Please model this.
Amino acid sequence: QLQLVESGGGLVQPGGSLRLSCATSGFTSDYYTIGWFRQAPGKEREGVSCISSSDGSTYDADSVKGRFTISRDRYKNTVYLQMNSLKSEDTGIYYCAADLAGQLRLSTLCQLWTEFGSWGQGTQVTVSS
Model:
């Protein structure tokens, strides 16, 4: 059974950094996409960053480009989201999710959270002074 477990959230001041981790297990295929999504109170869930398992290609939403970096450690089966220069608008619950279908271009897929079938429980990120 596919499992994803997030960790690393917390309270940080504006301009600070956090690194989120998504530990994965149960994959039966080598071809999948892992995405980081976030949801603020009263707002739609949005894609933040995604990474393809096949070639390591990545996609970042415009709102986080240059500040967030998604990466993976294949030996640890873990995907990371390094978040720098955090802003108050980055506050929300951050989820990692997996898509196994591989039918869409990464830039399109990362904006469609409904395409991801397996989700972690989420981790809270609060950016506040």
